[in-house]
Automatic annotation (TrEMBL):
<feature type="domain" description="Histone deacetylase">
    <location>
        <begin position="22"/>
        <end position="312"/>
    </location>
</feature>
<dbReference type="GO" id="GO:0004407">
    <property type="term" value="F:histone deacetylase activity"/>
</dbReference>
<dbReference type="InterPro" id="IPR023696">
    <property type="entry name" value="Ureohydrolase_dom_sf"/>
</dbReference>
<dbReference type="GO" id="GO:0045150">
    <property type="term" value="P:acetoin catabolic process"/>
</dbReference>
<dbReference type="InterPro" id="IPR000286">
    <property type="entry name" value="HDACs"/>
</dbReference>
<dbReference type="InterPro" id="IPR023801">
    <property type="entry name" value="His_deacetylse_dom"/>
</dbReference>
<dbReference type="InterPro" id="IPR003085">
    <property type="entry name" value="AcuC"/>
</dbReference>
<comment type="pathway">
    <text>Ketone degradation; acetoin degradation.</text>
</comment>
<dbReference type="GO" id="GO:0040029">
    <property type="term" value="P:epigenetic regulation of gene expression"/>
</dbReference>
<protein>
    <recommendedName>
        <fullName>Acetoin utilization protein AcuC</fullName>
    </recommendedName>
</protein>
<comment type="similarity">
    <text>Belongs to the histone deacetylase family.</text>
</comment>
<dbReference type="InterPro" id="IPR037138">
    <property type="entry name" value="His_deacetylse_dom_sf"/>
</dbReference>
<dbReference type="Pfam" id="PF00850">
    <property type="entry name" value="Hist_deacetyl"/>
</dbReference>
<keyword id="KW-0006">Acetoin catabolism</keyword>
Length: 387
């Protein structure tokens, strides 16, 4: 399906570092790029650098006093709790503005590539910092790069943008940025806010004309249930909305091994979702696809494999799940982390699911979650909520 794919990368993107004990460890993207290189995935994409987002670009989403406050923290390294920096989730560190602005600039570079047509698909795996709000850092996120990319695209005259967020946490910052803007359809599939940060993302949060869509899944949901929910909500809404560009956030913290959440997906289930989003980009947005990383805190077993699958999928050369990881990469993992690396690109699962159109089971908590979302938003799009 793909004609061209560009990966935005600069080694300095690993400078977004909250410290050695913080779960959002930059080694996860370092290991991802190393694995993608060893498996030949990076040979099939164009690699391009980036510049930090300017203050004017950051101000498309963030309040200027907030940007100035982040800069002050960046110089001093001292906390400013008024803007959410210096908490356990968001420790203050010297250089925080520069590191955060570079991640934002990388996602903006990806947005420019897709908008200008120099690449059909573009990715920033270091991005996806979807919790940052206009005036505060939140949930490991300082500047909201997906929201900035969407806002920039709107400034260029793009009239309809769809954002699909498959992180285990609700994409609250992106939803908040465009909650009253019918030009932007935000869809977030996440663990129920009753059991997980940030405590938002209920189906009743529907935004302007039903353009905020939330699928709140019960803890313990695995591949088959998650994919059933995705299939029941995302394709019909994207086909109906007809975006000019599809923006996606690929937090892989929905994996069963992730230490911060409670869903039970496999690497194989996640790569299945990425393939579905790739197809949907071509079916609904003329192939124009901007993808970012996101959460993911199992740094060795999950993140590198999943995001290598994402890059390969975007490049149009999916990796056979049975492919072994390279010995060179395994050696690098042991040197960098002291951990035992995975041997293959699969968890050994073959994700299958029953389509929602086959029938609704009111006794199934996943089906109830799906139906709550469909009832809340489908009629606002002229769609029948019943299967």
């Amino acid at each position: 399906m793909s004609r061209s794919a560009r990966v935005i990368w600069d080694d300095a993107l690993t400078s977004y570092d909250f410290g050695p004990s913080h779960p959002l460890a930059p080694v996860r993207v370092e290991l991802t790029m190393a694995l993608a290189r060893e498996l030949g995935v990076l040979d099939k994409v164009e690699l391009a650098g980036c510049e930090p987002a300017s203050d004017d670009e950051l101000a498309l989403v963030h309040d200027r006093p907030y940007i100035e406050a982040v800069k002050r923290v960046s110089v001093s390294g001292r906390a400013d709790l008024g803007v959410g920096l210096g908490t356990t989730d968001n420790p203050a560190f010297k250089g925080v503005h520069e590191a955060s602005a570079l991640i934002a600039g990388a996602t903006l570079a990806a947005a420019r590539a897709v908008h200008e047509g120099s690449a059909e698909h573009a990715l920033n795996i270091a991005g996806g910092l979807h919790h940052a709000m206009a005036a505060t850092a939140s949930g490991f996120c300082v500047y909201n790069d997906p929201a900035l990319a969407i806002a920039w695209l709107l400034e260029q005259g793009v009239s309809r943008i769809a954002y699909v967020d498959v992180d285990v946490h609700h994409g609250d910052g992106v939803q908040a940025a465009f909650y009253d803007d019918p030009r932007v359809l935000t869809i977030s599939l996440h663990e129920s806010p009753r059991t997980l940060f940030p405590g938002t993302g209920f189906p009743q949060e529907t935004g302007a004309e039903g353009t905020a869509v939330n699928v709140a899944l019960p803890a313990g949901c695995g591949d088959s249930g998650w994919l059933r929910a995705f299939d029941a909500v995302v394709p019909p809404l994207l086909h109906e909305f007809g975006p000019e560009i599809l923006v996606t956030q690929h937090g892989c913290d929905s994996h069963a091994l992730d230490p911060l959440a409670n869903l039970m997906l496999s690497v194989d289930g996640q790569r299945t979702a990425y393939a579905a989003l790739h197809r949907l980009a071509h079916e609904t947005a003329g192939g124009r696809w901007l993808a970012t990383g996101g959460g993911g805190y199992e740094l060795v077993q999950v993140v590198p494999r999943v995001w290598t699958h994402l890059i390969a999928e975007a490049a149009g050369h999916p990796i056979d799940p049975a492919t072994p990881t390279s010995e060179e990469w395994r050696r690098f993992v042991r040197e960098r982390t002291g951990e035992t690396p995975p041997l293959t690109m699969t968890d050994g699962r073959k994700p299958e699911f029953h389509h929602f159109s086959d029938g609704y089971d009111p006794a199934d908590p996943i089906d109830r979650a799906v139906m709550a979302t469909r009832h809340a938003v489908f009629p606002l799009h002229g769609l029948d909520p019943m299967p």
